[in-house]
Amino acid sequence: MMLSAHISLAAIFSTLVVGSPLESRQAKCHPNFEGVGVSVVWDQLPFTIREWTPGAVGANITTVINDSSQQSAEFRFEQTGSFPTTYLAKKLGVPANNQVVSVGSNNQYLNIAQSSSSDPNQTWDVSCGVCGTDAWSVHGLFADVCTIKSVHLGLCAQVVTSVTHAHSSPSFLLQPVTCNGAENQNFQFWMA
User: Fold this and answer.
1) CA distance 88 to 166
2) What's the pTM value of the predicted model, to 2 decimals?
């Protein structure tokens, strides 16, 4: 009887120790940015790093080359409080805190818009392969292998480019397209 109890406990322990890491590697995480400003980066090494750059209201968001290892925070991804976890991607440096990333007219490109609770194109799902913790203490890479998907349309943000010319063009637009796991749909979040 004592031997069977040890075997049962060993089986339970091995399930907890071996089973849990496998599950966590397969699961996606939703980062908690804790209100910290972030830089959204498309890392296309060995060529270069491209950072999302917001313009004025109505302007398309572009990705520009940033060869430095220090990105600047341009956005704040705030959780909406909904389940499952969704976000508003707010442009930093706006005193009224009311400019957000949105899917533009005709669902063609991502742009900056005035925040509106009635516009479903302003809510995003951010799912990552790796998420950091304690955002306030991180300086550098916080989340990796992330897709940024429009909750309303079910389309993923994608850098519009030809990978063969990605290292030489000064900027590229972001477009909402069918999610397919393409390299130009994977982003990183960096804390400045």
Assistant:
1) 28
2) 0.80
